[in-house]
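Protocol step 4 of 5: obtain the predicted structure for the target chain.
Materials: sequence only (see below). No template structures provided, no constraints applied. The aim of this step is simply to have a reference model before the mutagenesis design in step 5. Sequence pasted as it appears in the construct record:
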Amino acid sequence: MSKVNDLSLCGFLFDDHPSVMLIIDSENGSIIDANKAAVQFYGWEK
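Step 4 output (structure tokens):
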């Protein structure tokens, strides 16, 4: 599998996974990204 395909698969698994997922900056605790389930759960707009 190529690196591009790997990144596409990772994005798909993150964005479309039914569990709430956040990517957090380990240095300052800010949210870098949230998947669709998190956006819906927390009522955010993306």
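Step 4 remarks: The longest strand covers residues 31-34. Strands lie at 22-24, 31-34.
Proceed to step 5.
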